[in-house]
């Protein structure tokens, strides 16, 4: 029987987004395969995490394409982007916490491509007067990642309604937490 690698990766992602400390045995059970079969697909946890990273990058790049970040007002593009990222936010939250992916010179170039596109969106918003210029595009990009990860964790823990995910992230990112008159 052939093992469906995509099924294994998605099962691992679903489990690890809920329980980042899950063992390879637990990952195998979640995928409905034996530990030996999982080990034939992925030599160990590091190989599995690297494969999940590739999946996460592919999903981020697909979300970026779907969100059309170069079209219309930058704030609208951010809203579309957060909405497009939402299905992958749990996986991104898991990957965001995997330090091994971001240490040293071995960082996957896919993250640099994504960072560049997000920074370009924030820079465009600054240049056309929509966004504050005292916050760098690099910082706004990191803030977006952090909010996506926090939002995914809050939804998975039941502290936040899934339907509020996009609204809360976009409003905090674009509006900040400062209360304005009348609100």
Computed over alpha carbons, the radius of gyration is 18 Å
Distance between the termini: 60 Å
- Oligomeric status: single chain
Number of helices: 9
Level of helix content?
Answer: 55-70%
Beta-strand content bin:
under 5%
E-strand count? 0
Overall average residue pLDDT: 90
The H/E string reads HHHHHHHHH
Broad shape: elongated
**Uncertain stretches of 5 or more adjacent residues:** none
What can be said about this structure in brief?
The chain is mainly alpha-helical and 183 residues long. It is built from nine helices and no strands.
Question: Can you tell me about this structure?
Answer:
The protein has 183 residues and is mainly alpha-helical. The protein is 67% helix and 0% strand. The protein has helices spanning 5-18, 24-31, 35-41, 45-67, 74-85, 89-96, 109-127, 137-156, 165-175. α5 packs antiparallel against α7 and α5 runs antiparallel to α9 (165-175). The protein is elongated. The mean pLDDT is 90.
Describe the secondary-structure layout.
Elements lengths: L4 H14 L5 H8 L3 H7 L3 H23 L6 H12 L3 H8 L12 H19 L9 H20 L8 H11 L8
């Amino acid at each position: 029987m052939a093992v469906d690698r995509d099924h294994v990766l998605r099962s691992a992602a679903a489990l690890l987004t809920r329980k980042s400390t899950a063992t390879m045995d637990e990952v195998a059970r979640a995928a409905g395969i034996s530990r030996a079969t999982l080990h034939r697909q992925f030599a160990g946890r590091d190989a599995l995490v690297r494969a999940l990273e590739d999946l996460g990058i592919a999903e981020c790049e697909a979300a970026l394409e779907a969100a059309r970040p170069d079209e219309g007002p930058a704030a609208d593009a951010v809203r579309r982007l957060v909405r497009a990222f939402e299905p992958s936010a749990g996986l991104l939250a898991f990957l965001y916490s995997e330090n091994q992916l971001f240490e040293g010179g071995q960082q996957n170039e896919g993250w640099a491509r994504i960072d560049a596109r997000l920074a370009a969106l924030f820079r465009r918003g600054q240049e056309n007067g929509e966004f504050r210029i005292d916050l760098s595009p690099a910082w706004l990009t990191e803030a977006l990642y952090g909010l996506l990860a926090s939002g995914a964790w809050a939804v998975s823990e039941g502290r936040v309604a899934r339907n509020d995910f996009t609204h809360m992230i976009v409003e905090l990112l674009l509006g900040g937490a400062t209360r304005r008159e009348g609100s």
